[in-house]
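step=encode ok
step=design start
structure_in=
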């Protein structure tokens, strides 16, 4: 008997009094002990499947037809009381954002104890022993000490391991992991994936692994279901789908990912966005037709049924034979870094924080030490390393958001490390920062046009009409319609908000952009758009960039040079291709080993020694 099976399952939403299917005729099976990957962009309906399993659909959403069978029982028609008994015991969940999955005001031990009590695990002492056993099973060091800590005292990766331990505490039959590795460091991501697979094999649990990363899904999943606008685009064996995709959407997702081996290639970018509810309500043909690079006339009028294209392999495409003709675009023409004197020179840069250990006691933490590098005009330099390695601290010092403890920063021949008013003015004239999270970086109560031209407003440059015209010109330059200037940030998608973030930085005509994890957590298609946008802007405007990222494949695609940081120090640096193809430092080798290979048939045994060593020594950064 299958652990989970969807049969003609449809979930609809009420739109202007009429139902619109957000999940349409979904069919799949998940056998015991197997891993099913569900892949697609944001808005594809991936998380809606998890919500349907738990029957936690948003208001005005409901199952309109079909069955969702768990262990022979229909979750759709099951009584709410019976379903609650299953959730957390036979069906477990690992959420996307670990901090939101844990109560911030309760200790880890209290939360695990409450979970075990709900599972009716013995008395308090038995639950305490079981909690330590659970944390040790997920390879968390000093488990006894962790029980007394609060979630904010742990890293994101450690919180995710706590949630995995809680999920597997009851040895569930089904685990739903919703983007469990999004925005985590590459080594932590490898550890989380390895951990889920390890415990899944140990307990024989079936897993639904939701992700936007097709390459990662191909490495760990047995089958993959590619979802587009709530419709099944492709379904079949994971490695078969990755090696020979038969739906154009799957192929486009594959080509949107930068590669870690072989020759660099261009990134495929999908136009427009996935259709929303209004577009789906009047849909007659293929949902992907408006974005498909091999679309034909009949695709716009005939809804394609899933058809067999190989053993246990189905694709919903009228012209699946054309998928193989979709190729990666040529690499954009690259701008050469200037051979003149460096625009930015960093010498022996250091930063020490004083951390409170009581009312009178303080401890010094050396977050950055002896960092040295140059940045030439028109050069892109990447900084990679795990959380706590000092990457963002370096960036904040370079743009004046943190003072330096030691060393010097020379920008265009002037020392700006003193941090006085004159130095800050010089910094603002030459360098601008693009922050990681556009949602928190953009004021939701200001219109986009006002946000983009904040630097003009601060200096009293131009009147309101001039600033609006400037905002519209910048928005057009970054690929947004000029009318977006009149919208508010919540009315834009995550990728569009990040473009606004970039436009705001460009408004000041900087010669250096400092970009801190600006593509972290975005869909691969949106990520590809932003990476190609940065390369185009570099050719047109001729600026340099310091690009901070935990995604090594993105740095390989974008950057001329790379700095590898570990515990506040640069342990390896040089041209990106040389460092990644022939790493010399053990830490660089560990980072590269944690990246899933481009070929899913390759063995993947990620090294996680570095991340475990940090956790074991309590790295506070």
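sequence_out=
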């Amino acid at each position: 008997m299958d652990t989970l099976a969807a049969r003609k399952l449809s979930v609809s939403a009420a739109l202007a009094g009429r139902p619109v299917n957000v999940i349409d005729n979904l069919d799949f099976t998940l056998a015991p002990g197997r891993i099913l990957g569900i892949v697609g962009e944001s808005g594809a309906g991936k998380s809606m499947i998890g919500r349907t399993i738990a029957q936690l659909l948003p208001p005005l959403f409901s199952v309109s037809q079909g069955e969702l069978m768990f262990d022979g029982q229909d979750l759709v028609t099951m009584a709410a009381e019976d379903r609650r008994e299953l959730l957390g015991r036979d069906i477990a969940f690992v959420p996307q954002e670990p901090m939101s999955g844990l109560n911030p005001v309760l200790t880890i031990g209290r939360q695990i104890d409450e979970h075990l009590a709900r599972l009716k695990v013995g008395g308090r002492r038995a639950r305490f022993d079981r909690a330590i056993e659970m944390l040790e099973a997920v390879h968390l060091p000093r488990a006894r000490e962790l029980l007394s800590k609060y979630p904010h005292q742990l890293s994101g990766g450690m919180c995710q391991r706590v949630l995995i331990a809680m999920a597997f505490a009851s040895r569930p039959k089904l685990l739903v992991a919703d983007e469990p590795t999004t925005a985590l460091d590459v080594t932590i991501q490898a550890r989380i994936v390895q951990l889920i697979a390890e415990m899944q094999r140990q307990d024989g649990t079936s897993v639904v692994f939701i992700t936007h990363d097709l390459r990662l899904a191909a490495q760990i999943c047995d089958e993959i279901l590619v979802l587009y606008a709530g419709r099944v685009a492709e379904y079949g064996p994971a490695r078969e789908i990755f090696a020979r995709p038969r739906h154009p959407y799957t192929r486009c997702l594959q080509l949107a990912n930068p590669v870690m081996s072989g020759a660099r290639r261009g990134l495929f970018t999908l136009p427009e966005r996935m259709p929303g509810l209004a577009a789906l309500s009047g849909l007659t043909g293929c949902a992907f037709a408006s974005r498909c690079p091999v679309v034909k006339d009949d695709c716009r009028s005939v809804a394609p049924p899933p058809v067999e294209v190989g053993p246990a392999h189905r694709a919903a495409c009228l012209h699946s034979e054309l998928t193989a003709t979709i190729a990666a675009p040529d690499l954009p023409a690259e701008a050469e870094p200037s051979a003149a004197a460096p625009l930015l020179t960093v010498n022996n840069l250091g930063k020490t924080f004083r951390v409170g250990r009581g009312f009178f006691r303080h401890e010094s933490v050396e977050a950055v030490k002896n960092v040295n590098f140059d940045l030439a005009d028109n050069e892109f330099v990447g900084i990679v390393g795990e959380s706590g390695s000092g990457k963002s601290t370096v960036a904040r010092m370079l743009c004046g958001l943190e003072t330096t403890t030691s060393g010097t920063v020379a920008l265009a021949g002037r020392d700006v490390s003193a941090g006085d008013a004159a130095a800050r003015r010089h910094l603002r004239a030459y360098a601008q920062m693009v922050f990681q999270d556009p949602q928190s970086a953009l004021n939701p109560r200001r219109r986009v046009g006002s946000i983009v031209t904040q630097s003009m407003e601060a200096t009293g440059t131009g009147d309101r009409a001039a600033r609006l015209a400037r905002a519209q010109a910048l928005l057009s330059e970054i690929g947004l319609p000029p009318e977006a200037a009149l919208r508010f940030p919540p009315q834009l998608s995550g990728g569009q908000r990040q473009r606004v973030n970039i436009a705001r930085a460009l408004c000041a005509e900087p010669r250096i952009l400092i970009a801190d994890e600006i593509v972290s957590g975005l869909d691969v298609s949106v990520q590809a758009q932003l990476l190609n946008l940065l390369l185009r802007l570099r050719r047109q405007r001729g600026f340099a960039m310091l690009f901070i990222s935990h995604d090594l494949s993105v740095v390989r695609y974008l950057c001329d040079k790379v700095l590898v940081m570990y515990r506040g120090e640069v342990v390896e640096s040089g041209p990106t291709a040389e460092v990644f193809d022939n790493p010399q430092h053990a830490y660089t080798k560990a980072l590269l080993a944690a990246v899933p290979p481009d070929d899913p048939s390759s063995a993947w045994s990620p090294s996680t020694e570095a991340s475990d060593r940090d956790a074991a020594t309590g790295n506070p950064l």
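step=design ok
step=annotate ok -> DSSP finds 24 helices and 22 strands in the chain.
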